[in-house]
From TrEMBL:
Its EC number is 1.15.1.2. InterPro entries: Cro/C1-type_HTH (IPR001387), Desulfoferrodoxin_Fe-bd_dom_sf (IPR036073), Lambda_DNA-bd_dom_sf (IPR010982). Keywords: DNA-binding, Oxidoreductase. Gene3D superfamilies: lambda repressor-like DNA-binding domains, SOR catalytic domain. This is Desulfoferrodoxin. It comes from Methylomusa anaerophila. Residues 12-64 form the HTH cro/C1-type domain. Signal peptide: none annotated. GO terms for molecular function: DNA binding; iron ion binding; superoxide reductase activity. SMART domains: HTH_XRE. The keyword Nucleus does not apply.
């Protein structure tokens, strides 16, 4: 750990929040001299203070310890680069349009990599007027089911969450040319 780099980051983040050293110290129930010491690189925050410090400053603990905040490139409204994350513990679905540090249930999640749908994992898609009717014969049991279906087209995404014991069928409006993604609880993310 480089105390100089960490101290400069703490100082910059504190100033971004328009806080004085005293205000930050009061929020953390420590002395402003301790904050001053950190910011001058004469010491680093104790491990026990990092969760509270990260919450107050609005950054991850890892960023504090590395001494830098990595900013993503601005990508605009292109949803075609949307990344999906699914928590293996609670099946929470999260998305990001760029690089992100995503965690759930205390674990860091990696972006899912989509595979081309095979015979066992194909959705039936039928045009019905200005909508598409999507269905599947995929089993929908607690041990094995399709968790969500997402249709991505340009600047829009349409996500339908599915649950075990439900019939896998729904309709959505055509959004133009796009790609259909779906997540099987046992076999991962597919596209069609």
């Amino acid at each position: 750990m480089n105390c100089d780099i960490i101290g400069k980051l703490i100082c910059n983040l504190r100033k971004e929040k328009e806080m004085t050293q005293k205000q930050l110290a009061d929020l953390m129930n420590i002395s402003d001299k301790t904050i001053s010491k950190w910011e001058r690189g004469l010491g680093c925050p104790d491990v026990s203070l990092l969760p509270e410090l990260s919450q107050i400053l609005g950054v991850n603990i890892e960023e504090i310890l590395s001494g830098k905040v990595e900013l993503n490139e601005t990508i605009g409204g292109n949803m075609k680069k949307l990344k999906f994350y699914v928590c293996p513990q609670c099946n929470n679905l999260l998305t990001a349009t760029g690089d992100a540090n995503i965690s759930c249930c205390g674990k860091k999640l990696k972006a899912l990599v989509a595979a081309n749908a095979n015979e066992d994992h194909l959705l039936n898609i039928e045009p019905v007027e200005d909508q598409l009717y999507v269905s599947s014969s995929h089993e929908m049991k607690k041990e094995h089911y399709i968790s969500f279906v997402a249709y991505i087209a340009g600047d829009r995404v349409f996500i339908v969450k599915q649950y075990p014991e439900w019939d896998m069928q729904f309709r959505f409006h055509k959004l133009g040319h796009g790609k259909l993604y779906f997540f099987c609880s046992n076999h991962g993310l597919f596209y069609q």
